[in-house]
Amino acid sequence: xxxxxxxxxxxxxxxxxxxxxxxxxxxxxxxxxxxxxxxxxxxxxxxxxxxxxxxxxxxxxxxxxxxxxxxxxxxxxxxxxxxxxxxxxxxxxxxxxxxxxxxxxxxxxxxxxxxxxxxxxxxxxxxxxxxxxxxxxxxxxxxxxxxxxxxxxxxxxxxxxxxxxxxxxxxxxxxxxxxxxxxxxxxxxxxxxxxxxxxxxxxxxxxxxxxxxxxxxxxxxxxxxxxxxxxxxxxxxxxxxxxxxxxxxxxxxxxxxxxxxxxxxxxxxxxxxxxxxxxxxxxxxxxxxxxxxxxxx
Length: 297
Fold this sequence. Notes:
By secondary structure, this protein is an alpha/beta fold. It has helices at residues 40-47, 88-98, 103-116, 132-144, 162-177, 189-195, 213-219, 261-269, 283-293, and strands at residues 2-11, 14-24, 29-33, 55-60, 63-64, 73-76, 150-154, 181-185, 198-203, 206-212, 224-229, 240-245, 250-255, 273-278.
């Protein structure tokens, strides 16, 4: 859906993006990650044609990104931008028409979304009278109302309580299942693991790692395993990371330099092995590792 080739961007002497190559697959939910100041927002602004790269190219599908492609994109920025004195319904319809919808189309789709997100009572209220979470729902609707092919969400869960966070996550997944490609930028790593299938991590304006999320987690695995047994087991202090008693047995987290086939065979022969699996590192752990130590070769 989106591919960047050797994209660079400078602000005075600061390098925001340095020869960035990224490939965002069509139909994916792509997590664009990185610490503050890494270059994520600079890249998002280029995709939305708010700014242009100093060098390099960005493609939308097979063609260079064009001004007309803005109509195919829905963008929810981290810094919200609703008109506070304007009534919610009027504002949603106004923004929808700017995206090319007719008045009847805009009204029908808006009413449907307001019902779906339990927002019907918002229609005649002014934005300044809404809570932060309520206003965030309105901004979400204005982002998706014109049914764009590409959705870009920058910290979409800011201001939401857990119930509304889950509601918006479900809607993002639904939109993706109906064909939208989603770019998802956030600091909340648990959300990345829950909904993203691809990630790209930018640090200091450069791409540190990119690809399918599961492949990256496997690449950064560190020999950690979870073992559940019927009775407690003993290991040397170097191998045993933690253990706890469960209702149905004992759970141990172990760490080995090599695959512990002998350990598994021994536990199976003793007929005390209940479960065994490799523990892949979380996105948060990978994020910290890459930022502190750089990417793996």
